[in-house]
């Protein structure tokens, strides 16, 4: 069943883009979570609201927002093209951007909550031992919130894997380039329903596995270390 | 005496002000003792750099680390302080060895060198067999030793101990305290110990500084403070009777009424009288012994303490007396019972009020 080239392409593409999107979300999201939890700067409340917008926004609208920002004539997109020759819409990197945009809030919210849950005393202890802020963050803060980092990362990956609306709006539905598993399921429903069901089962299996793992290992012990 | 920690600290917070001047010499252990909210932790946080001074100056090893007037404020990571926190705050994700090596690593030592340094302190504090354990596999006393090793491995210029006994249960406290005393004796770093337990202060410290409501109310050599407390708080901690009065020619007129005779005839003017409860005897009828001080009182409370019974009486003067359980039943001591009290003149520790012995 899962042997048609289209399905295999979609599976491969989904794994690559979801993993990449998770990596992007991690690299951008952890420092952002730290800023939101610890730093005091004007407009912090607004920043927090902006970060969580993708959670409540219909993904299609998110895709349109991305087009307006990163489209060829978008606010940022026109300069990306002029200066660097980079075009995001309807490309594989565009898929990664769309997935990261929608999924990153899961990581930020989880990690920010964990950072707020720390009382800072271990970090103060580390400071008295001569550790500078970056060392404290790397060797004390991050390990203390490791369970939440893992939980946030897995949730982010799961969300990215299932992303549909923003992806199809911003990156289109090109087999092998931007057609991820959920898009393949959608297309499959019209041509080959059994293929669509099989792909759906794959997605379902992944989701259930992740939830079971999270429940047993991380969600129960909580976000605090 | 070149003080290696010198503090002139004023910290203002809301409606509380801490104003302390003190110094700790190399190899000396000074205990800061005081009730909750006296400012002990504020002082420790100021020295370790976790709380900036409002006014004053802190010098560690001759280096100014905080002086708001000159805009100097060295952050904790550059102060070279070793802190043993009340809850120890060992890093839960690291082994004992990694915890102890944390300081050397953080201050730039290579992995190998940090491990060597950590190994030395682990051995010195008898933690060798526990080196691979994680903090959740340690007892309270073991955690305390790891915290001490971790603080010392960074080769600090000053060692700060914040209520090091508070997290231990009463049963292990005695042994751990004796152990800590041995370790502190070997340490050649000026040490500041924060505690609310007089036994910690007496056993671990060379000098005691009493802090009440943000002010130093007494400081001196440990035995001296224990013998001649200058505040009701310290007297109560030590379980001593403390009476105020005016001395003249060997007779002390007490503030609350009553007269006492002392052997010391030199004291003149306002004095404090410290009297151990076990130096007070209780009688059913007027005693005709050698005791020079005899007065009548009434039992106010009866409370067992160890193998003795502490009887508080109203006088004047109101004092506590320690007697045997047998005496309690013999004399039929219950609240309200009238009793005669006596104590020898030689048992009274008489000293000028207000003056803190300088050392």
Please provide a written account of the structure:
The complex is a heterodimer of chains A (225) and B (359). Chain A is mainly α and 225 residues long. Helices cover 77% and strands 0% of the residues of chain A. In chain A, α6 packs antiparallel against α7. Residues 220-225 of chain A have low confidence and may be disordered. Chain B has two domains: 3-234, Rossmann fold; 239-352, RNA polymerase II/Efflux pump adaptor protein, barrel-sandwich hybrid domain (OB fold (Dihydrolipoamide Acetyltransferase, E2P)), CATH 2.40.50.100. Helix content of chain B is 26%, strand content 35%. Chain B is built from nine helices and 21 strands. Chain B has helices at 40-48, 96-106, 111-124, 140-153, 170-186, 198-204, 222-227, 232-238, 325-331, and strands spanning 3-13, 16-25, 29-33, 55-60, 63-67, 72-73, 81-84, 158-162, 191-195, 207-212, 215-221, 241-248, 251-254, 259-261, 269-275, 281-283, 293-305, 308-314, 320-324, 338-343, 349-352. In chain B, β13 (251-254) and β14 (259-261) form a beta hairpin. The interface between A and B is medium-sized, with 18 and 26 residues.
Please tally the β strands of chain A and state the result.
0
CATH structural class of chain A: Mainly Alpha
Roughly how many Å is the radius of gyration of chain A?
19 Å
Give the helix/strand class of chain B.
Answer: alpha+beta
Report low-confidence residues of chain B grouped into runs of 5 or more.
none
CATH topology of chain A: MetI-like fold
Order of strands in the sheet with the most strands of chain B?
Answer: 7-8-9-3-10-11
CATH class of the largest domain in chain B: Alpha Beta
- What does the main sheet of chain A amount to? none
Helix content range of chain B = 25-40%
Pairing-aware structural class of the strands and helices of chain A?
mainly alpha
> How many domain modules of chain A?
1
